[in-house]
Every structure is written in C-alpha cells, then in structure tokens.
Write a structure and sequence with these properties.
With 807 residues, this protein is α+β, with helices and mostly antiparallel strands. The protein is built from 19 helices and 30 strands. It is a peripheral membrane protein.
C-alpha cells in the first residue's frame, strides 16, 4: 500500500500547506494557505498574500487543539479565536496535528523559560562580563535542551500511537473471519501509517539533535584553540610593551635631569654620560619604573600582521632616539594610514562630504482666501501659485534624480549578453519612480535658460547637465555621461489633464541610453503619473501605463506594465511586470516587482499558451521560470525624511550650494533657496518677481523678432489683422484669437490666453538654448534637443559671460 511521500514536520521547521477553514454558513469551508512558524499559526487566501496580507494568526502557546473526526480538528485560544479546520484526508490531518503539538510544546517551553529568566535576572556589574562571555554557551545549552524536549514529546506521541496500534492488533486477533475483517485491517493499516509518520518525526528530531551537537562541538574546539593562540599573542605583546615602557621611562628621566646635554658638544664628543636613572643590561631585563603622570602615552608594537596594533598620542622623535626603526611602525605612519581625516589621506581621495539634512518643513497653514483675493481681475496664466504647494527642488533637479540608481547602468555596461543588459536597463527605468511614492509636493517650474549640473565624477563616475530649453510648452533637456561606458539623454515635456478628483501628468519625449562598448542604443518613454485627491483628502501618487524598452541594434524588447491601483484588486500595490524578448519574439526573462520597492528577474525555461483569458479576451501565456533573482532594491529613506519633504539621500544634496557652477544654475535661484530655509513669505514675493521678469524678457524678445521681420510682412500682418474664431465651450463661450504666422516657422503657442488655454501667438519666440541644439533624432525621427558641448570646458575656465541673467 504505497502513498505519496509528504514532508514530515520537523520540530523546528516551518510547516505550510492547504487546509479548509470554516468561514460562515453561506460560504461554508473555504480553502486557505496555512503557515506554522515560531509557535504561530497564520493563514492567507493565497500563497502570494504571504508578502503583504495576513488574514489571521493564533498563538499556539495558549491554544487548545481538539480532534473532531477523521479529517476535522479545532484550534482555540480560549474563546477569542477559534479555527474550525478540515484536512483533505486523515493522514494529512495527523501530519498537521503532530506539527501543531510539537510547535505548541516548544512555544510553551520558550514562554516558561522567558518568565524564569525574567525572575532570575539581577543587576550585577561585576558579573556582566562573565555573563556576556557565557551567553553563547547558555544559548547553545538552551537549544540542546529544547531538542531534548522535542525528543521527549515525540517519544510520548510514539507511545500513544504505539498503544493504539497494539490495541488494534489485539482486536484483529480476536475477530472471527467475516465482514469485520476488512474494516479492522483498514484500521490497522491507518494506525501503522500514523505510527510511521510519528516515528519519522522522531528520527528527524534525533538527526537535528546530533547535527547541532556535532556543529557546536567543532565550534567549541576552534574557539578554545583561538583563545590559546590569543593568550600567547597577548603575553608576547605585554613583554614588548614592558620593554618599551622601561626605555621611555629612562629617556624621560635622563632628559629631565640633564637637559643641557643635548646642546653641549663637548659632552657629546666624549660619549654617553652616565645619568641618574640609567641601568645596566641586567637591570633592563628585571627592573621596571612606575610611569610618571605627565608622560604622554606612546605605544608601538612590532609591525607584524598577526599582532593587534594600537597607537596613542605621538611623542616627537622618541622612536628614532630609542632605535625602534627596524621592525616597528611609528604612530605617524599608523595615523595617516588609518585616519581618513588626516591631510595626506584627503589628498589621496578628495571626495566631498555631502550634506545629509535640510531644514525641516515648516507647518504653515494655507489660507485659500488670501490666494483668491489676490487673483481678482487677473488672467489665470499670470496668477502666481504660492510655494506652499511646492518642494524646494526644481523640475530640472527632479529630472536628475533619475540617476539615483546609476549602478544599474554600470552593471549593464559590463554585461556580455544583450538580454541581460536589457534586464538592468528595464530595472533602471522602474527605479526612477521609486522616489515619487511620497513626494506630493510640486517642483518649481524652471525659468527659461535655467540649468542644473550634477557632477558626481569623483563619487560615482558620472556627470549630468539639464537645461530648460522651452517655456511654452515647458520642456527640459538632460544629458548624462559616465566614465563607466554609458550615456543617457532625454527631453521631457509635460502634458496634464485635470479630471476633477485627480490630475494626470503625461511626460512626452523619449529617453535614450547608449552603451559605448557594445554600441547598444536603448529608447523608452515614461508612464503616466496620477495625483489623487486634488480637492479633498490626502494626496497620493500612482504610476500606471506601459513602457516598451527597445534595443535598436539587436531588436530586443522589454514590455513593462505598471498596474494602476485598484481597491478591489488582490495584486500587490504598485505592481510592475515585464517580459524580455528577442527580435523573434521569444521570451527569455520575466521581470516582476513594485516600482517603489524592488525588481526581480527570472530566466524563462519554457512558455506555453494556457490559463485564464486576459481582460482583452486573449489567452494568457504561462512561463516556466527558474528561481527569481534580485535586480534592484530601493535604498531606505534617511532618518527624519518625513520632515524633509520625503527626500532621498541624493535629493538632499541636489540644492546644496556649490562653487563654480553657472550663474543660471538652479542652486542660485533665490525663491527656491528661501523656501528651503523656511522663509515662505519671502519666497512667494521673490517668486512673483522672477516670473514677472521672465514675462518682460519674453515680450522684449518677441519685439526684437518682429523688428527683424521684413517690412512687407509686417505691413501684410498689420493689414490683415487678426482672424477671430469663436469656439463654443460649456458652460459659456470663449473667444480665442488666432493669428497666422507668415513664413516657414510653425505657429508658436503662448499661455497668455484666458483661463490658461493655449493660444496661437503671432510672435515667434526666437530663444536659442545655451548648451543644447534642436536636431532630428536618427533613431526615433523625433525633433529633440541634444547636448552640443562646451559647458564643462566653460566651467574649467570659469568663463560664464555668455550666460543670461535670469535671476
């Protein structure tokens, strides 16, 4: 009679499996995933829920376990919690009962030991060191004792089931051959099966006990040998220190008694003069002096790796005077080698220490009426939004935060396989959203021509530059290059839609990543960012949409899907999934994780069509993969981040003042600096001044463009006038003026229209970016701004005369 082998619950192992749990009279028994670990029995709806949602937990230390019938049993802890459970078979039920009884016995012992240890603990300063020295031995003894108790529990269970088996055998002997024979034989077989299960648990417990005893026996032998060797080293070191102390004592006393001997050449030429305190060679070995209180500590030991070195404060010239150059290490050499704050070590590794904190965010209440009363009679596009809604970073700095996890691109540059490289690039695209989960503050809108440099060559091997290249529509260009073989560039413009309860922000433009060694060229776009509870409630951010990362050289592709948050979904919140395929569409890797925590990848071994149909009606693909490996994991936020706008470690350093940057750099923007310092009223005043200055500069630039136009075109424009177009809108009608530009230039859009609507302007903005030029990208065919060079050369020369005065 063969049965499928199931895992036997060991006394210390976690036991998992499916059981049916009684829910209510409508649904009856429901299948749940149970986990028994550390004396606690927990259950979940599915195995996937183990990561985030536990449906219930019961402590077995005070629980009562009762068997109802062949498959049903009840676990209760005194009335507050009661689980009515049902196994698939009697054998499966007995496996759970055995595991539960073992876990209950262990939990009870641990609780009793903790109570006893709490009663017996008394403060004893003299015995603290001894207690800490013996803590490992006591812990091991407790573990061994626990194993012995496990053996005792298993022994009791074996005796219990053995007696039941014996009774069944006795009944079998007294039964006449007839109808009861088969039933009795079945009972004997089940009893024998239960006895075998319990015996296996007993054997496992014995095996664990022996393994633990053998492991600790070897560890104790090594510890004893290490203690013996350390004692020998300490004795040798003590002897060396005693000799050095004797030399120092004599040198100090000789210098105190005859201080003029060092400057008297007559005495020096006659050889050494006997001084008070000198001793013979025999005294040097046997006689020691008490240390003077005013002697500075100076300890040096032989420069042998097997000795433990320790140095005190330096006494100039003593080591050379006493002839300790050979085989010894002076304090100056040791301090320079071990102290990172010494001048010599700073010259070797001149890495700047970045700040780790900014002033805490002030708790200012926002008075909406004070904002609205200043808006009466003004155009909506000219209403300045207060800094209360902002964070003390600009959009250029937020764009530079994409490089928070630059190490992913460093690893990708070293990959030999393009498919593995694609995994790291995909993880990098997801990691750029990890800093946004709590960042509900709006970044400052950059002024036209504003720049931001991020020079991390010394620390991280890369440097990047951002510039605001357009104001209507707002667009920023970004270029980053690394010494480790990769280049990242992007131009991002933002389009937004207000839906009443939430605001959708859709980044426009492509991101390019080029690897120098392999010449692989990757492109992708960003997903939609949604800010919820704009009107009422607490703001929260979600990322949703799909990303296609494409390798234009090999044709490899990674399709990433950012699942939108849903209250009714059973999936993990902020879930991201993806599949890496080659140019033929064959899947090689599966990516999974969350955009605010981590990403993992699994190698695909086999794929097949099957499973449930998706939302679009198509059949899902099932992938058989190897064990998942971690690609990226988010770095925890610094301590106190909730009071610092939830900035990451990199974000805290972005607005730190830095010498040598361009005069247009965001770090020199006054309103943003005032907000960071907590002076919000002054920041609002300064923000209005900067915005009005930018409008004045733009109007002057438009007038210059008109003056540069031909007189015939100017006359034609003035004769034709403006063509008015009536556009009906709900609930009222709004008149928009549309002026056609004569010439080859496309229409220019301005935000000066009523209600902030985009209006075609008759004035062409002839602004030319300082460090970027507009070209057609050969890969995507899109017009984009590409870095043309010159910034870092100007920084080295300190030549910023061509930069505009925007602040």
């Amino acid at each position: 009679m063969s049965e499928p082998r199931m895992p036997i619950p060991a006394p210390e192992d976690t036991y998992k499996g499916w059981l049916f749990k009684w829910t209510n009279y409508i649904k009856g028994y429901q299948r749940r995933w149970f986990v028994l670990s550390n004396g606690l029995l927990s259950y979940y709806r599915t195995q996937a829920e183990m990561r985030h949602t536990c449906r219930g937990t019961i402590n077995l230390a005070t629980a009562n376990i009762a068997v109802e019938d062949s498959c049903n049993f009840v676990i209760s802890n005194g009335g507050t919690q009661t689980y009515h459970l049902k196994a698939s078979s009697e054998v499966e039920r007995q496996r759970w009962i055995t595991a539960l009884e073992l876990a209950k016995a262990k939990a009870s012992r641990m609780q009793l030991e903790s109570d006893d240890s709490g009663d017996d603990s008394t403060p004893n300063a003299a015995g603290q060191s001894t207690g800490s020295r013996n803590s490992e031995v006591q812990s091991t003894l407790r573990t061994l004792g626990s194993k012995v108790e496990d053996l005792s529990t298993c022994n009791d269970l074996i005796a219990k089931h053995g007696s039941a088996l014996q009774r069944s055998l006795s009944e079998l002997e007294g039964v006449q051959l007839g109808g009861e024979t088969s039933e009795k034989i079945r009972q004997v077989t089940e009893r024998a099966t239960l006895f075998r299960i319990t015996s296996n648990a007993m054997i496992n417990a014995c095996r664990d006990f022996m393994t633990l005893a053998q492991t600790h026996s070897k560890r104790w032998q090594k510890a004893l040998q290490s203690e013996r060797e350390q004692r020998v080293r300490l004795e040798e070191t003590l002897e060396q220190l005693a000799k050095q102390h004797n030399h120092l004592e004599r040198a100090f006393r000789g210098a105190t008694v005859l201080p003029s001997s060092q400057s008297n050449p007559a005495i020096d030429s006659k050889g050494p003069v006997p001084r008070k305190g000198d001793a013979s060679d025999e005294d040097e070995e046997n006689e020691f002096f008490d240390a003077c209180e005013d002697v500075q500590e100076f300890i040096t030991v032989p420069a042998d790796p097997k000795y433990h070195r320790r140095s005190g404060s330096n006494v100039s010239g003593i080591s050379n005077e006493l002839g300790m150059d050979d085989g010894t290490t002076s304090l100056d050499e040791q301090s320079l080698a071990s102290n990172p704050e010494s001048p010599q070590s700073q010259e070797l590794v001149p890495v700047r220490k970045r700040r780790t904190r900014i002033p805490d965010k002030p708790n200012y209440s926002l008075n909406l009426w004070s904002i609205m009363k200043n808006c009466i009679g003004k155009e909506l596009s000219k209403i300045p939004m207060p800094v209360n809604f902002n964070e003390p970073l600009s959009m250029l700095q937020r764009l530079s935060e994409d490089l928070e996890y630059y190490e992913l691109l460093d690893r990708a540059a070293k990959c030999q396989s393009s498919l593995e490289q694609m995994c790291y690039v995909a993880a990098f695209t997801v990691s750029s959203y990890s800093t946004t989960v709590h960042r509900t503050g709006k970044p400052f809108n950059p002024l036209l021509g504003e720049t931001f440099e991020l020079d991390r060559v010394q620390e991280s091997g890369y440097r990047s530059l951002c510039e605001q290249v357009s104001h209507h529509p707002p667009a920023a260009a970004h270029h980053a290059i690394s010494e480790r073989g990769w280049t990242l560039r992007q131009e991002i413009a933002l389009a937004s839609k207000f839906r009443g309860k939430y605001l959708s922000i859709m980044p426009l433009g492509s991101i390019h990543c080029i690897f120098e060694k392999s010449t692989h060229h990757y492109t992708w776009k960003k997903v939609t960012t949604t800010v919820h509870n704009i009107i009422v409630g607490k703001l929260w951010i979600d990322q949703s949409g799909e990303i296609d990362v494409v390798n234009h050289k090999t044709g490899d592709r990674c399709h990433l899907k950012f699942a939108p948050y849903s209250y009714f979904s059973r999936d993990v919140a902020r879930k991201v999934t993806g599949v890496v395929t080659d140019k033929d569409g064959k899947a090689h890797y599966v990516l999974s994780g969350t955009w605010d925590e981590k990403m993992e990848y699994s190698r695909v071994m086999q794929s097949s069509r099957g499973g449930e149909n998706g939302a679009d009606g198509r059949q899902k693909t099932v992938y058989q993969t190897l064990k998942a490996k971690e690609l990226w994991k988010k770095t925890p936020l610094p301590e106190g981040a909730e009071n610092m706008y939830y900035f990451s470690t990199l974000a805290l350093t972005l607005n730190e003042p830095e010498e040598g940057v361009a005069p247009t750099d965001t770090r020199k923007r006054p309103d943003q600096r005032l907000m960071e310092q907590g002076r919000w009223e002054e920041a609002n005043t300064e923000k209005q001044r900067l915005e009005e200055k930018q409008r004045t500069v733009r109007r002057e630039r438009e007038r210059e463009a008109n003056r540069a136009a031909s007189p015939s075109e100017e006359g034609k424009e003035s004769a034709d006038g403006a063509e008015e177009v009536e556009i009906a809108s709900e609930p009222s009608e709004t008149t928009y003026k549309t002026e056609t530009l004569h010439g080859s230039h496309p229409p220019a859009y301005s935000m000066e229209g009523p209600y902030g609507a985009p209006v075609k302007s008759g004035h062409q903005d002839n602004y030319t970016p300082m460090w970027f030029e507009r070209l057609v990208d050969p890969m995507t065919g899109e017009p984009t701004h590409i870095y043309k060079g010159g910034y870092w050369e100007a920084k080295e020369q300190g030549y910023w005369d061509s930069c505009p005065d925007i602040f």
